[in-house]
Structure formats: C-alpha cells, structure tokens
Amino acid sequence: MAPNRPTSFDYRVLPPSAFAGRRARPTAIDLFSGAGGLTLGLLNAGWDVRACADVSAACAATHHLNFPNIPIHVGDVSRLGSGDLLRMAGLKPGALDMLAGGPPCQGFSILGQREGHDPRNRLFLDFMRLAHELRPKAILIENVPGLATLEGGAALRTISQAFDEAGYDAACAELVAAQYGVPQLRWRMVFVGWRRGLGRSNGFPLPTHGTAGIGDLVPNRTLAAAHAEGFLSTWEAIGDLPVVAAGGTASRYASDPACSYQVAMREGSGLEVDNHYAPRMSEVNLARIRALKPGQDWRDLPYELLPPGMQRALRKDHTRRYRRMTWDGVPRSIITRFRDPKSGEYTHPDQHRTISIREAARIQSFPDWFRLQGSLSDQYDQVGNAVPPLMARAVGAEILQVLQSSAPAVPALAPKSRYRLTAPAQADLLDQAAA
C-alpha cells in the first residue's frame, strides 16, 4: 500500500537550463508536444529530449520561450518523416531511446463526441508509423481513458495491432495524476511499449500519494475519502496566488508561499507571476457564482438563476456544473473549458470567478516560471490539453529505470487495469497510415 503522502517529496519542476552540461542521458523525441508538459517532465526525469513537434503555432511560441534549445517542427505530423526527426534531433538511425507523445484526444474523449472516424484518431497511426521507422527502444503514449471503449473497443484493438506490427510488446494502464503529486483528479491512459528482444517490460510507476494502487481508482465514480487522503488540496495548489477579479490580471505575489508545493511552484519565478488572468464573466454568471458557497453547485441556485435548459433537469444530472471548489478538496481534471462555470467544478473557492490560467497551470503542476504564449483562447487550450509535468516525470523516471537496469530474469507483471492490449490479425495498419 502506498503511503498517504511522502514527507520529503520533491515537487520542484526545474527548467531545461538546470540540465545543461550534464553527462550523456538517454534520448527522447516528443510528438504532439503541445504546451510541453511531457517534455518538461521527461527532462526532469533524466531524459535528453532532442526534438518536439506540434501543429499549433501558439504551442510553438510557448515551446520557444521555455525550451529555447530544443528544436520543434511546426506542422502536420502526418507529413513528417523519420529522417526529418533524426536531423532535428542530431541523431543517427537506431540511436533514439524513446519516442513519446500524446496524439490529440478529442476524437477519443468521453467529453467530446467520441467519433470513431474522427480524422484526429488516425494520428495514433502516424505516431506508430514513425515509431516503426525510428525503432526506439521504448514508446510512451498518453491519452484519455475514453478511447478504451470507443466503438466497442475497436480503437484499443487498433492501437494493439499497431504496436504489434511495429515490433513492440506493450501494456496500458489508467494512471491518476493525484497519485503522483499533482493536485488534480485527472485520469489518463498510458501506453508503454518495448522493442522486442530487449528483455524489458512494464514502466508504470507505483503511486507516491494516497493509499490506492494503479487501477484501484475508477473515473466517474465517487472517490472514497480514504483513497483521497494524502492528495494535494486546492489550497495547497493555488492558495498563495494573488486575488484577481473576473476579467482582470494580477502580476505580483501578495503573500509568501505556505506549503512545500507552493514553494516548489514559485522557485525561480522571482516576485512576479505570469498568466494570472481570470476569465471575464457575464452578469448572470457572476450572479450565479455569488449565490454559491464552497461545495455547492447548480442544484443550490435559486430557480430564477438557473439556465433555461437546466430548470427541468433532474437533480442527479450535471452534478458538477457551476460547482464552487473547496479549499480542502482535490481539484477536478482541468479541461480547455475551465473558464466556463457550467463546464464543471472550476469556480474559485471564495473569489467570484472561475480559476485563472495560472491557477489552472498550477493544478496541472506547471511551475510559475513556465510562461504560456498565444491568445487567451490558445492558453486555455494549452493548459487543458497538457500532460501534468509531475505525472510525466514519474512515468519517465520509471521507464528510465527499466531501460537502464539489467534485463530481468522474469518479465514484470502488467499493472492492474480494466483493459488489456491484444493484437488481432487484420489489415496492415502501418500501410494504412502511410497511404
């Protein structure tokens, strides 16, 4: 059983400059890198991230600011070849240790339309095409748990076959960010694949926070109080950030950090805080927010303040819409729509607004020195779609340990999971991806 919370856990997320000049480290390339949460976590885990790629110019601007020495390809990954990546990374064929990434999840997400034929879903196959060409020792993919049940499990079978045809033995597990020091109940599906013949398996880190193990916590179910004991709270995540009004910005800290997480998040940021913009609210939404106490939601609103579509809703439906956060609770999963109070539990515990971009970044475990670029809409998307750096660090460190250890005599047991990868004999998916 994991401890409730380690007393000496290091919440610091260091900048790339902290690793400059260190001895040779295993190499990695991060595709669909977004804001850079996975890149940042892998750097802090001991990897040498040599190159990144993303289609978004705003993400590239954030990347250039925070990772000035890591080249990034800005464009469609489906048009990217392995030779292009190797030239960017300064690597010879066969020298890459890990290919990592989080292909866009909108087509798979249970929060979206779950379209099996969404063209973004085939980006998984573009990722695996590049893996087949690059032949890294390890493959790491992060995505949403909802893909496991998409079209009756067809997406998971497709992913299984793609790993198999590329020559990798893989496993998957649902990991919860809060179990790795992130102040957020965020479930993610993680795939780890090892090139056949290396004698490697697993790569899923044991939880450091809480009392549950991998696979014990299931999304969309009430979390037992005993399981949440030891997770970081809303106050620990954002309680030290300055007061800001809806539609306003604050740029300087107004108080000292009061816990280890706050100290770690502020390290290297000086006296000023960036991206602490709170979304503008309509007058009716401000009225709704003012009417709610911490922990209350739409069911506690006066009838006349309810949106017309919710005046006939059942009380068991939409249970987190308009919910005000509590200081002692664990924040919910950050999504791109965290600026909208009807999207879920994103209203500040005592200020009359939804959480700011910096507060959302804190809940994702991005340190305050990490600055987001682009329009406000770009920044919402970058934070909501990001891999939490502390979670990425935990996974990256475990894969690194497996990679550098002597080959185990007995393959490691797969983690507890509701899902298993299989490889049914169907059409050649890599040919499909190249078509």
Overall average residue pLDDT: 90
* Gross morphology: globular
Series of secondary-structure elements, N-terminal to C-terminal: EHEHEHEHEHEEHHHHHHHH
Q: Outline the low-pLDDT stretches.
A: 106-116, 424-435
Determine the strand fraction and express it as a percent band. 5-15%
Fraction of residues in H or I helices: 25-40%
Description:
With 435 residues, the protein is an alpha/beta fold. It has a domain at 16-223 and 388-434: 3-Layer(aba) Sandwich (Rossmann fold), CATH 3.40.50.150. It is 26% helix and 10% strand. The chain contains 13 helices and seven strands. It has helices at residues 37-45, 57-66, 82-89, 123-134, 154-166, 225-228, 234-238, 260-266, 283-290, 357-363, 376-385, 389-404, 429-434, and strands at residues 27-31, 48-54, 72-74, 98-101, 138-143, 168-176, 187-195. The chain has a seven-stranded mixed beta sheet, sandwiched between helices. Helix 1 packs across helix 12 (389-404) and helix 4 (123-134) packs parallel to helix 5 (154-166). The protein is globular, with a radius of gyration of 21 Å.
Structure keywords:
Rossmann fold; alpha/beta; 435 residues; 13 helices; single chain; seven-stranded mixed beta sheet; disordered C terminus
Helices, strands, pairings?
Blueprint lengths: L26 E5 L5 H9 L2 E7 L2 H10 L5 E3 L7 H8 L8 E4 L21 H12 L3 E6 L10 H13 L1 E9 L10 E9 L29 H4 L5 H5 L21 H7 L16 H8 L66 H7 L12 H10 L3 H16 L24 H6 L1
Parallel strand pairs: 1-2, 1-4, 2-3, 4-5
Antiparallel strand pairs: 5-7, 6-7
Question: Short description, anyone?
Answer:
This protein is an alpha/beta fold.
